[in-house]
Write a structure and sequence with these properties.
It contains three helices and five strands, in the order ββααβαββ. The protein is an alpha+beta fold. A five-stranded mixed sheet has the order 3-1-2-4-5. Helix 2 runs antiparallel to helix 3.
């Protein structure tokens, strides 16, 4: 059985998009992460060293996204997944990136990717 850990609704802003007007101003994105992992050791030890430090991963994602200027949500999501997989305890990660201002008549446009650790 695989346990899961989540980071939900991380709201950040970055340069994202292919249109000239999208390349000028930062836009909001909402990031959701699901880590597939084994939480049994931390569940019994109650020790931060025995688990995935979601604060560290979040800080690294925030730094990357804030400094990014990708054209596609797909590229942004892959970069975020790569950061998450640096911790080898993360067996796989699902990354969803929403872009709320992408479509006038929709709440958001989004991509979701899943990557596994080697």
């Amino acid at each position: 059985m695989t346990d899961k850990m989540y980071i939900r609704d991380l709201e950040l802003s970055c340069i994202i998009g292919t249109k000239p007007e999208e390349r000028k101003a930062r836009q909001n994105v909402i990031i959701n992460l699901t880590f597939e992992c084994d939480l049994a050791l931390a569940g019994s030890s109650d020790d931060l060293n025995d688990t995935i430090n979601y604060k560290t991963i979040s800080d690294n994602v925030v730094a990357m996204v804030n400094g990014s200027s990708f054209f596609l949500l797909e590229k942004l999501a892959c970069g975020i997944a790569d950061i998450c997989l640096r911790d080898k305890r993360v067996r796989a990660v699902t990354v969803t990136v929403d872009k709320p201002a992408a479509l006038i008549s929709a709440k958001s446009a989004a991509v979701e990717i899943r990557k596994e650790n080697d």
